[in-house]
TrEMBL record:
Domain NAD(P)-binding, first and last residues per copy: 7-203
Residues spanning the signal sequence: none
Protein name (record): Nucleoside-diphosphate sugar epimerase
Classification of source organism: Bacteria, Bacillati, Bacillota, Bacilli, Bacillales
InterPro entries cross-referenced by the UniProt entry: ComplexI_NDUFA9_subunit, NAD(P)-bd_dom, NAD(P)-bd_dom_sf
Source taxon at top rank: Bacteria
Gene source species: Brevibacillus fortis
Gene Ontology MF annotations: protein-containing complex binding
Spans through the membrane: none
Pfam families, sorted: NAD_binding_10
């Protein structure tokens, strides 16, 4: 199968690209000019990758790159807005997806596999989740056979989330906002890559949406403890910071790129991010259940 892939140079995209190669697919990767030549395995013996320069807002480049493709895997998304650069949730998630879908219809694409987010819903508190939901609605109304995945936090070698938390855990005292009881359901990048690639050719998954999490939910506090164990720290000394104290700090500092959290991210963290029906994914797709602690130990111990 010939697959058009967006977001190939990102953390998740690299895992999916590797999986597509392993399955023998031909891949056309959309890359911006600034990312040209950054594809893993590009210009190697694996000749089944083509790099197509363009972006989500150059409709001609999208249509040109999709010619002859059978399917699209659309991964591009942002977790943090940069208004000064016109990098906005509504623009990337909604307008960008609309452009990809329009090009896909013109190019005769038969299958559209879409990356959404766990927690996407119409009445979400965060603009991130609301725009992810809007993008889902566009995919569902497109008339193209689709599969939508809603992943929780994704972990794996080179991730940002777990590695950032590991840096905090290495400190003498680790700050925790609130009581740390809010749940997450971290899922391995390998699992995400497995299900995305399988969805290209599994007819029973057509026009379905799947919550995509690890085998079990963990509280934020449990995640910190697991990271501590993975890096060999006997005890994670946590200091709990009340939300009432943290909120003004985030309001003041989120405009600076170096500050690790925004108001949107804080809202999403505190409301939790666990699957309502995480079993369905593993009942439907052939993929290993990778628990969080052994999964992160494979790469945190090597640092």
């Amino acid at each position: 199968m010939k697959v058009f892939l967006t977001g190939a140079t990102g953390f998740v995209g690299r895992g999916i690209l590797e999986r597509l190669q392993a399955e023998g697919h031909e891949i056309v990767c959309l890359t911006r000019t600034s990312s040209t030549g950054k594809l893993p395995y590009y210009e190697t013996a694996n000749a089944n990758i083509t790099e197509a320069t363009g972006d989500l807002f150059d409709k001609e480049s999208l249509l040109r790159a999709m010619q002859g493709c059978d399917a699209v895997i659309h991964l591009v998304g942002i977790i943090r807005e940069q208004p000064g650069k016109n990098i906005l949730f509504s623009r990337i998630h909604v307008e960008g997806t609309k452009n990809v879908l329009e090009a896909a219809k013109q190019a005769g694409i038969k299958r559209f596999v879409h990356m959404s987010a766990l927690g996407a819903r119409e009445n979400a508190t965060s603009a991130y989740h609301r725009t992810k939901y809007e993008a889902e609605q566009l995919v569902q109304a497109s008339g193209i056979s689709y599969v939508i995945f809603r992943p929780s936090v994704i972990f794996g070698a080179g991730d940002e989330f777990v590695n950032m938390l590991a840096d905090l855990v290495r400190l003498p005292v680790t700050p925790v906002i609130g009581d740390g009881s809010y749940p997450l359901q971290p899922v391995a990048r390998k699992t995400v890559a497995d299900v995305f690639v399988q969805a290209l050719s599994r007819p029973e998954t057509t026009n379905q949406t799947y919550e995509t999490g690890g085998p079990e939910p963990l509280s934020y506090g449990q995640i910190l403890d697991a990271i501590g164990e993975a890096i060999g720290k006997r005890k994670v000394n946590k200091i709990h910071i009340p939300l009432a104290l943290m909120k003004p700090v985030v309001n003041m500092m989120e405009r600076f790129p170096f500050f690790p959290i925004t108001n949107t991210q804080l809202t999403m963290l505190l409301e939790g991010n666990a699957c309502k029906d995480g079993k369905l994914l593993y009942d439907t797709f052939h993929t290993e259940k990778i628990d969080f602690l052994p999964g992160i130990t494979t790469y945190l111990r090597t640092k």
